[in-house]
Amino acid sequence: MTKDRFCVAILAALVFAAQTRAADPLPTRVESVLSLPGYKDAHWGLLVVDAKTGETVYERNADQMFCPASVTKVFSCAAAMSELGPDFRFETPVVRRGEIDSQGVLKGDLILVAKGDLSLGGRTGPDGKLHFEDNDHSYAGSVGTSSATLVPLDPLAGLDHLAREVKEAGIKSITGDVMIDDRIFENAPSSGSGPAHVSSIVINDNVIDVKVTPATKAGEPATVEIVPKTAFISVDERVDTVEEGGKPSISVHSVGPRRFTVRGKIPVGHKPVVKIYEVEEPAEFARSLFIEALRRRGVGVPASPLSGNPSGSLPARSEVANLPKLATYTSPPFREYIRIILKVSQNLHASTLPMLLAAKHNETSLIAGLKREGVALRALGVDTTAVSFGGGAGGARADLVTPRSTVTLLRALKKRADFPTFEEALPVLGRDGTLAKAVPADSPARGHARAKTGTYSVGDPLNGRTILTSKALAGYLETASGRDLVFTFFLNNVPMKGGDDTSAETLAAGQVLGKLCEVFYLDDTNESAKPAAGVAPKGSN
Q1: Residue 6: is its pLDDT beyond 60?
Q2: Is 356 found in the same domain as 315?
Q3: Which helix (H) or strand (E) holds 274?
Q4: Contact (Cβ atoms closer than 8 angstroms) between residue 191 and residue 390
Q5: pLDDT, tens digit, for every residue of 415-460?
Q6: Which of 190, 246, 265, 501 is exposed most, by the fewest CB atoms within 10 A?
Q7: pLDDT > 60? residue 21
Q8: How many domains does the chain have?
Q9: Quick check: 46 and 490 in contact, CB under 8 A?
Q10: Angle (deg, nearest 10), helices 282-296 and 157-168
């Protein structure tokens, strides 16, 4: 069966499942979804409970461990929010090492001290909120991705703010260097798709956006826009506009330090395509952009923006803390960052959360941060022997959780005073973020669930296919009768038919979980704890 025929079969089966009589027992209706073509032999884990009483509505393999994919972010966000608080704000200072003479010349260096701000002014709108698009640009490097959209805001807003305050502090020029102090925590790997390097300095998610727009006529070169514009990188671009129809094919390849090519084709009339180039040295990237921002503000900087970050010349951290401050950028409240992480499943930001927990306790390693996360989760009532994490985003091999541990955490969060912050940050079924297309526009459950999605897949070179390791969904649902439910759905180990581009099949799997939301939304029978035929009762293997 081809990929397209497989997806058509799934859609037809979803229609059939939707026609299952509402009078049928809840387990029967759930089983009609779990047994859809392609999913019957998958590893399913489900737990649905009444939010108020904790009464089990439905369960299947609730105490077995599953790959949670980005549902991991529920745990890392919960721990970070409970430790830092929803009103926490990053404060990123610029300090000086040296004296300022009567002519406004700094006889020394400027040091930007990174504090782990995940955006540093990027995404921040006039309303003070962080803005997002449902298809985040950080995923634009993935194979088959052609739907990413850029937030129409200045990614360099924070650096420009700092440069302006340096100028207003009376600095007209400096004789020394510009440095980025990124030592608040160690660089670490990100555990999900998108940018691979976690750093305490983050500008535009440490990527260069490549926006390709077709010409009006076939045969003419497409327009390639680089965001942000900077001398830090060199680009060789050649993208052709081809006849209308078909799919774009655009690739970005590194060809040396700070150099990449853009090649491919895009049809006439196609919407702009966004790709990304990740910078390998975030501190060097930030330094170059900051020097350019200072120069735009009229501050003379003799140091080359391409010479690299002179980290070896930084004074001790204790000395930096006592240097005179020239400028400070204060971020929006932390709740805004949680919203971005959960709405669009932002992997780089989520991967940074354990590092922020480590930094709060004057520690610097990922291992230390994960241990701090464990402490926070236990304080929230989670049995951490039922979970395992290797990072904060959901892409680590060590990431395993049970449906019960996930529901336990979700119920605990519901009792906290800051729960509205967490609930508002979750994608809304059928409306925004990663749940925007999980159900059709006429779905009765549309808008009645707030939940975190998860998707993780691996290649199977032996068979030339892809394995959907995990499609997951966990959150809150209000039924048609007004009953509040807390739920977790894990779908693991599904062979997919497609090759490199499995986006249609992944979307279909997400719609299967959306169909489960519809089943529980329409359940007004209040049946509970009756496992479907062949399903082991709680605690059994």
Answers
A1: no
A2: no
A3: strand 273-278
A4: yes
A5: 999 999 999 999 999 999 999 999 999 999 999 999 999 999 999 9
A6: 246
A7: no
A8: 2
A9: yes
A10: 50
Most confident of 9-23, 138-152, 344-358: 344-358
Query: Kind and range of the H or E element at 319?
Result: helix 317-320
**Model pTM greater than 0.85?**
yes
Shared-domain flag, residues 80 and 118: no
pLDDT confidence of residue 540: 29
Taking the CA atoms of residue 435, residue 436, residue 441 and residue 444 in that order, the dihedral angle to the nearest 10 degrees is: 20
Q: Which residue in this structure is represented by tokens 């207003």?
A: 168
Same-domain pairing of 54 and 114: no
Of residues 13 and 280, the one with the higher pLDDT is: 280
Taking each helix axis from N to C end, the angle separating 347-360 and 366-379, rounded to the nearest 10 degrees, works out to 80
Find the helix or strand (DSSP H, E) in which 337 lies: helix 334-344
pLDDT digit string (tens) for 31-68?
Answer: 999 999 989 889 999 999 999 999 999 999 999 999 99
Q: How far is CA 83 from CA 80, 179, 541, in A?
A: 5, 30, 36
CA–CA separation, 98 and 96 (whole Å): 6
Please report the pLDDT score of residue 40 as a whole number. Answer: 85
In the prediction, which pLDDT does 142 show? 64
Are 260 and 294 within one domain? yes
Does 374 share its domain with 448? Answer: yes
Residues 452, 475, single domain; the answer is: yes
What does the pLDDT read at residue 132?
A: 92
Sort residue 409 into left (φ over 0), alpha (ψ -120 to 50) or beta: alpha
363 touches 372 (CB < 8 A)? yes
Q: Which two tokens stand for residue 143?
A: 């194979």
Note down the domain range covering 139. 91-332
pLDDT bucket at 532, cuts 50 / 70 / 90: very low
Q: Is residue 528 part of a domain?
A: no
Mean pLDDT of 353-367: 98
DSSP string, 353-399: HHHHHHHHTT---HHHHHHHHHHHHHHTT--GGGEE-SSSSS-STT-
141: left (phi over 0), alpha (psi -120 to 50) or beta: alpha
* Residue 276 structure tokens: 């990304």
327 in a structural domain: yes
Mean pLDDT of 167-196: 95
- The verdict on residue 160 lying in a domain is yes
In a domain, 372, yes or no: yes
Domain edge (last residue) among 332, 360, 375: 332
Q: Which residues have CB under 8 Å from 415's CB, separation 6+?
A: none
- The CATH code of the domain that includes 465 is 3.40.710.10
Interatomic CA distance for residues 196 and 199, integer angstroms: 10
In 3D space, the residue among 211, 209, 212, 213 whose CA is nearest the CA of residue 194 turns out to be 209
Residue 253 CB neighbours (<10 A): 11
